[in-house]
Structures are given as structure tokens and as C-alpha cells.
Amino acid sequence: MSLADISARQEISLSYLEQLFSRLRRQKLVVSVRGPPGGGYRLSRSADEVFVAEVVDAVSESLDTTRCGNKGDCQNGEKCLTHHLWSDLSDQIHQFLSEISLGGDLMRKHEIRQVADRQNRKQSDESADAINTQRLTDQATA
């Protein structure tokens, strides 16, 4: 799938996606593929073997819930009373996301399939509209 398609489908800036996919490629989670029009990206291994935590880690997003960035200097240079609680929560979130694969676990959820299907229909409709607009333009100039 091309980044332009993902950008349109998810309503995310293309330049931001380029940055994210550069990081994903460096971590060998995706590989670039050539092809019309303009190529795109695909997972480097089965979606069942790629876990959400890997993606989050690859794009350098933090799952840290502490206010000190887990440095332990939250209260006047020392750990606050709840530091370990929030630090443990961060670890639990990361562990939870480490158990969710992109292929099996996510795509088996009915709600997620519904969103994916809706986005596929919208993209198909927009592609058909673009083709029809081009045909009308071609006919008008002929």
C-alpha cells in the first residue's frame, strides 16, 4: 500500500507518515516495494508475527505514564510517592501491547474489521469518482 493511500485513508499527513515509515524500515518491520503507481510498503514478516509494542517502539513513541520520564526525579530530584505505581503501569501497557499481533489479534476483532471494511469502501468509492472525473475531463477536451 502506498503512503499516499494510507495518508488519505487515515487522514494523516504524508510527511509525518514518511517519517514513521522511515523508522519502521530502519527497525526492519516494513520493506519498500516497487510497483505501479509509485510502489509502497509491506510488512517484512507475517502480520501475525508483528506486535503492536514493536511498532510503538520502532517509531519512538513512549508508553511511559510517569511524569518524570521514568527518571525517578519527579519530586525535587527524587522519586515521588507514586513513581513505582506509574512505572509499573507503563510496563504493564508495554507487556499488553507485546501480546497483540497486527494480523491475528487485531484483525479478528469485529469492530476493527468493520472500520477496515468501511475504509476500503470509502477508498474504492473515491477511486471510482476520480476515474469518472478523469473520463469526463477527457471527453470534454476531445
Give a topology summary.
Layout: H1 3-10, H2 14-26, E1 30-33, E2 40-43, H3 52-58, H4 83-98, H5 102-107, H6 110-141
Commentary on this structure:
The chain is mainly alpha-helical. It folds into three domains: 1-44, Arc Repressor Mutant, subunit A (Orthogonal Bundle), CATH 1.10.10; 48-108, no CATH class; 110-142. It is built from six helices and two strands; from the N terminus they run ααββαααα. Strands 1-2 form a two-stranded antiparallel ribbon. The protein starts with a helix and ends with a helix.
What is the CA-atom radius of gyration, in angstroms?
Answer: 21 Å
Total strands: 2
Could you describe the largest sheet, including whether it forms a barrel? 2 strands, antiparallel
- The parts where pLDDT drops under 50 for at least 5 residues are none
Q: Name the strands of the widest sheet in spatial order.
A: 1-2
Query: Secondary-structure element order, as H and E?
Result: HHEEHHHH
What level of helicity do the residues show? 55-70%
> What is the number of helices?
6
The domain count comes to: 3
Overall 3D geometry? elongated
> How large a portion of the residues is in β-strands, by DSSP E?
5-15%
What would you call the structural class? mainly alpha
Mean pLDDT: 85
Taking the alpha carbons of the first and last residues, their distance comes to 33 Å
* Oligomerization state: single chain
